[in-house]
Write a structure and sequence with these properties.
Layout (H helix, E strand, L loop, with lengths): L4 H5 L2 H34 L2 H50 L2 H7 L1 H26 L1 H16 L4 H45 L1 H6 L3 H49 L7 H45 L18 E8 L9 E8 L4 E6 L5 H8 L7 E6 L2 E2 L5 H7 E4 L8 E2 H8 L5 H10 L3 H4 L9 E2 L8 H13 L5 E5 L7 H14 L4 E5 L11 E6 L2 E6 L1 H7 L1 H17 L1
Parallel strand pairs: 3-10, 3-11, 6-9, 9-10
Antiparallel strand pairs: 1-2, 1-4, 4-5, 7-8, 11-12
Helix pairs in contact: 2-3, 2-6, 2-10, 3-5, 5-7, 5-10, 6-10, 7-9, 7-10, 9-10, 13-16, 14-16, 18-19
Bound molecules: adenosine-5'-triphosphate.
Adenosine-5'-triphosphate (ATP) binds next to α11.
Keywords: ATP-binding, Cell membrane, Membrane, Nucleotide-binding, Transmembrane, Transmembrane helix, Transport
Protein name: ABC transporter, ATP-binding and permease protein
GO molecular function, one term: ATP hydrolysis activity
Length: 573
């Protein structure tokens, strides 16, 4: 609730209107049976004046009720939609402020569910709160008092019905809370399975994994179906049970009153009014139950949203200069462990790279190459040691300055849906067509971009599905070089290019980005032969630092990798 109150306060005016309209609505609802009673008695007496007068008041009251109901719904919706929109936007901003490790901790699909499904739950409860919360107690107490006034001798029928209905409601509420918590968890599981499947659809298809994937999805979906069905069954039993209780109360009241109706004809009007109040009490309890169930569901959602809102980004940046720094890189005794891991992935790593140099990083799979690159871009901070870029500790650089200095191109390129130029302008807002063309030339992308009907304004579909793997990599490199960064990290970023294109990219980088420090992580040694220096990683340690010739002559790990690759190439040719 603490999370929600500041958001609700922003809509004070709408809240007041919603609450005032509820009071008008309750008044109209409660007063109508009373008026009916007066009119019925007047009919029995043949008092036309009273029938006419009270009839008009009854119509006015009904109109007031309708208007108040509509106004209440409109303003409750204003508050609910406003709160949900603001909360969603703040949640999104919060997630944007997260470090990479924080997003990994929650998982992307989990955060998506929190931003969509959980926010929807909250929207619904806020709406229900301003429609029902003040209405239910007013209606309940008002109907109870008026029922007692109308037929005081039937007090025990009233109390009996209330005890049964409230007891059943409380029991169901307790049971339902557990079901709703499980529903939320199951929705998340279904989302995770569906998301993983759809993101990896090519792998699923190519490895004929559909039956396995269907089984996985069915398990998650079945669990959700089961718990949803349990909720449905409980409601299916609950509603008729409530109405049965109310009907028994009505029959009992009618039976008891009916015996005396000839002696007291006014009882006829009173019993009609009494039954109306009984029904209003029943509706108040049912709606109260629904509200409690929705509240318990929303409370879980609120907790999940609060958890994200309360999480401080595990990494913060200093404010300050947004200018890029020079391209030197220095690792000084850097050790790094992934959050939650026991053993470090990088151990006591030290090396220096001068601005403008090209360095290659090689090592067996899992040796820590990507991790090392991620530390240069400060996606994580090391456990110990320092990383300097342009002579400054990366922790002392503003985020803008670091992003302007370091461009990181990944093997699995992520382009955003929109257009090619919009993707390039994400890195360089004021990129001109000539600059785009230059960057595309470096990445060997201009040839295919210029064949597209809309060239640089060509659309990029979701997950860039309208481009081939090689084209995606070229576009990513284009985006990486467009701002002429001081440091360019290519993390296996040319793996989908053929040898000739890869060579052309390398030559263009040498020719056009002479001042840029290039860090190339490559599986193939042929990709880094021309590097000024090559770092050899083995189980998170640097075991070699030299050029190709030196390493081939003296470094056993490098020799092993080189030999294995040569043998593989020999076998292929
Ligand atoms: N986000 C993560 N959380 C926990 N452990 C991780 C994470 N990312 C990588 N690792 C682990 O760190 C080790 C090094 O991974 P890294 O990706 O740096 O290796 P790599 O040398 O780039 O491998 P490859 O050549 O296969 O890309 C691996 O054992 C990997 O399982």
């Amino acid at each position: 609730m603490k999370v929600l109150m500041p958001y609700i306060r922003r809509y004070r005016k709408d809240v007041y209107i919603a609450l005032i309209s509820v009071i008008a609505l309750v008044f109209a609802t409660l007063w109508q049976p009373r008026l009916l009673q007066v009119i019925m008695n007047a009919i029995l007496k043949g008092d036309k004046d009273t029938i006419f007068q009270q009839g008009i008041i009854l119509i006015i009251l009904a109109i007031i009720g309708i208007i108040a109901g509509v106004v209440n719904t409109i303003y409750s919706a204003h508050v609910a939609l406003g709160v949900a929109t603001d909360l969603r936007s703040d949640l999104y901003d919060k997630v944007q402020s997260f470090a990479y490790a924080d997003v990994e901790k929650f998982s992307a699909s989990n955060l998506v569910v929190r931003m969509t499904n959980d926010i929807n739950q909250i929207q619904q409860i806020v709406m229900a709160t301003f429609q029902q919360v003040s209405r239910i107690p007013l209606l309940f107490v008002g109907a109870f008092i008026l029922a007692m006034i109308t037929m005081p001798q039937q007090w025990w029928v009233l109390i009996g019905m209330m005890i049964i209905v409230i007891a059943v409601s409380l029991y169901t509420y307790k049971k339902m809370s557990g079901y709703f918590a499980k529903t939320q968890q199951d929705i998340e599981n279904v989302n995770t399975v569906a998301r993983e499947n759809l993101m990896g659809i090519r792998v699923v298809k190519s490895f004929v994994q559909e039956p396995h994937e269907i089984k996985k999805f069915s398990a998650a979906s079945d669990s959700l179906t089961k718990v949803t069905a349990k909720i449905g069954y409980t409601f299916a039993i609950l509603m008729p049970a409530f109405f049965l209780t109310a009907n028994i109360a009505v029959v009992l009241a009618v039976y008891l009153v009916g015996q005396n109706i000839t002696i007291h004809p006014t009882y006829l009007a009173a019993i009609t009014s009494f039954i109306s109040y009984l029904m209003q009490i029943l509706f108040a309890v049912i709606n109260g139950g629904f509200l409690m169930i929705a509240a318990s569901r929303a409370n879980i959602s609120l907790g999940r949203i609060g958890e994200v809102m309360k999480t401080d980004p595990s990494m913060s940046y200093v404010e300050g200069n947004s200018d890029p720094v020079e391209g030197d890189i220095e690792f000084d005794h850097v050790t790094f462990t992934y959050p939650g891991d026991d053993a470090p992935t990088l151990r006591d790593v030290s090396f220096k790279v001068n601005a403008g140099e090209m360095i290659g990083i090689v090592g067996a799979t899992g040796s820590g190459k990507t991790t090392l690159a991620q530390l240069i871009a400060r996606l994580y901070d090391p456990d110990s040691g320092t990383i300097k870029v342009g002579g400054v500790d990366v922790r002392q650089l503003s985020e803008k300055s670091l992003r302007k200095t370091v461009a990181y191109v990944l093997q699995r390129s992520t382009l955003f849906s929109g257009t090619i130029s919009a993707n390039l302008r994400q890195v360089k807002e004021d990129a001109t067509p000539i600059q785009m063309q230059w960057a595309a030339n470096v990445a060997q992308a201009s040839e295919f971009i210029e064949r597209l009907p809309l060239t640089y304004d060509a659309p990029v579909e979701e997950r860039s599905s309208n481009f081939s793997g090689g084209q995606k990599q070229r576009l990513s490199i284009t985006r990486g070089v467009i701002a002429q960064p001081k440091i360019l990290i290519l993390d296996d970023a040319t793996s989908a290019l053929d040898a000739k294109s890869e060579k052309l990219v390398q030559e263009a980088l040498d020719r056009d980005l002479t001042k840029t420090t290039t860090v190339v992580i490559a599986e193939k040694i042929s990709s880094i032969l021309r590097a000024d220096r090559i770092l050899v990683l083995d189980s998170g340690r640097i075991v070699g630092n030299g050029n190709h010739k030196e390493l081939v002559a003296h470094n056993s790990v490098y020799q092993e990798i080189y030999r294995t690759q040569k043998a593989r190439e020999g076998a292929r040719s």
